[in-house]
Amino acid sequence: MFRTRSAASDMQTRTSDDLQREYDLITRERNGGHSALSAINAQNDIARELERRER
């Protein structure tokens, strides 16, 4: 896994663009064969936060 920190840990202080970049990074990692449960959970958390911000 290439990420060194959890996206969910500081999600409230990050911009939507930052979160989208993190989401895209996780997608690339997963497409490359890295599918750790923590990455999947982080991606789900990011998706929920981005949806919340769009409301």
What average pLDDT do the residues reach? Answer: 84
Strand content: under 5%
What is the general shape? elongated
Largest sheet: none
Give, in order, the helices and strands.
HH
Structural class: mainly alpha
User: What is the helix tally?
Assistant: 2
Q: What is the first-to-last residue Cα distance?
A: 32 Å
Number of strands: 0
State the gist of this model.
The chain is mainly α and 55 residues long. It has helices at residues 16-31, 37-54.
Summarize the structure in words.
By secondary structure, the chain is mainly alpha-helical. Helix content is 62%, strand content 0%. It contains two helices and no strands. Helix 1 packs antiparallel against helix 2. It is elongated, with a radius of gyration of 11 Å. The chain starts with 15 loop residues before the first helix and ends with a helix. 13% of the residues are buried. The model has no long low-confidence stretch (mean pLDDT 84).
Name the descriptors.
55 residues; mainly alpha; elongated
What topology does this entry show?
Layout lengths: L15 H16 L5 H18 L1
Helix pairs in contact: 1-2
